[in-house]
Amino acid sequence: MRGTKRICLILLVCCFTSGTAVAQIVNIEKSRMQSDTTGWLGSAGAALSLIKNTQTVFSAGVDAHLQYKSEKSLYLILANYGFLKGAGNKFVDNTFLHLRYNYKLNSLIRWEVFTQYQKNVITKIKSRYLMGTGPRFKILSNKIIRMYAASLIMFEHEKESTPAKTEHNDIRSSTYVSFTITPNNYLELISTSFFQPRLNNLSDFRILNQIGVIAKAGKRLSLRINWNYLYDSSPVPGIPSDNYAFSTGLEYEF
Prior knowledge:
Elements: E1 6-11, H1 13-17, H2 28-31, E2 39-52, E3 56-69, E4 73-86, E5 89-104, E6 109-120, E7 125-141, E8 145-160, E9 167-184, E10 187-198, E11 201-216, E12 221-232, E13 242-253
């Protein structure tokens, strides 16, 4: 059994709260831990902040990531909670849980099954449940560049936190293309783009682009920079179609 534990040294408030506003689509490629060996990998982190001046601002963030890899199977668990409150207002209140199973059919194709739960008070999502499946393809893989694509089908049940308390039951396609560039041992760039249209109404779609940069400052210390952009053509009433977030922080691995 092999384990990796990570603890954040520096967490700006935006590091664990800015991404929650647009985290309606999970970037699975960014969440996969690369390893040539079988067994367990994992990470967990938490941050807590209380600031009092002319106003009182309280924030909290918790992340957990667990992965198990065998010769042909990969199990992935992701969990996240983010909260930010100030001046009597909630700016962030998000809960997220994602479970995924990945089975290797051959050297180029893997089959995936996943389920997901999310609550986001700010974007007026009372609850969103997903269940989906589909193939994932290896397009290119070498020491410098890895590229993958997937075409999945998923069922989505969503309840909105609006006076009308609207509920949706939809079937969506979830297609993504992801690439990772590692020019050397100290720098890594990950970019993933998603397209998620509703199959019975193609004008109802979501587009997400996520870019992450990891720059190692030593054997265990890294600088992480993340950019997230989400466009939802049919958001909950009162919520803008465009959302974006930028976050940065230092991470220590031991």
